[in-house]
Amino acid sequence: MKRIPYLSIQAISVFLGFTFWGSGMAKLFYEHQFFGWIGPVWLIEELEPYGLGLYGKFIALSQITIGYMLVTIRYKLLGSIMMLPLIGNILMVTISLQWKGTPFVLGFLLLLDLILLWQYRDFFRPLIDEGKSRFDIKPRKIRTRNGHLVWLAGLALQFFAIQVSYWNWPAACGVVLMGLLLSGLSFKVDRMHSILDQK
């Protein structure tokens, strides 16, 4: 199977990321006022009668973190690996609560995640061999510590935006956008450091 074109992989990553990031944000935003196409936004409320409200919040926070890794495309590999147990957990909840249709949607999202993982298959052979592998790992762009820190600041703003949403919804959306822009700048920080290192 040939590698899927680069832009298609980026599009899959953004779509998957937006799906789960948006879903998690919608669960935690004040009165669930956040954009997202997959639900239910009231999962936490649905699980509270069973004493699983905290578990619902954990799912939402996981969706935000993992989805953000993918929507910002910086950590596609790590995010797509972490997506497997996330989808598994959500699938078990939906089956346990007998929600019809949701498992099929999750199956489609799982397929997209597997497509992402397939593009990084060269990384998995050393894990299987538990050490250095005779198979080459395709080189990727260098990431820097400062770039990681800038990205983390953007993620932190997402969680801050949830708190702001209880005070002012437009301001919360502004904080979300600031975080996304900041995380996008992490690639520029990487490039600047690469240029400085070459001098």
Low-confidence stretches: none
Through-space gap between termini: 40 Å
What would the principal axes of the Cα set say about the shape?
A: globular
Major β-sheet annotation: none
- Structural class comes to mainly alpha
Report the mean per-residue pLDDT as an integer: 89
Beta-strand proportion: under 5%
Number of domains: 2
Question: What's the gyration radius in Å?
Answer: 18 Å
Tell how many strands the DSSP assignment holds.
Answer: 0
What is the number of helical segments per DSSP (H or I, 4+ residues)? 8
The helix-strand sequence is HHHHHHHH
Q: Could you estimate the helical fraction of the residues in percent?
A: over 70%
Transmembrane segments: 12-30, 50-70, 77-99, 105-124, 145-163, 169-189
Keywords: Membrane, Transmembrane, Transmembrane helix
Protein name: DoxX protein
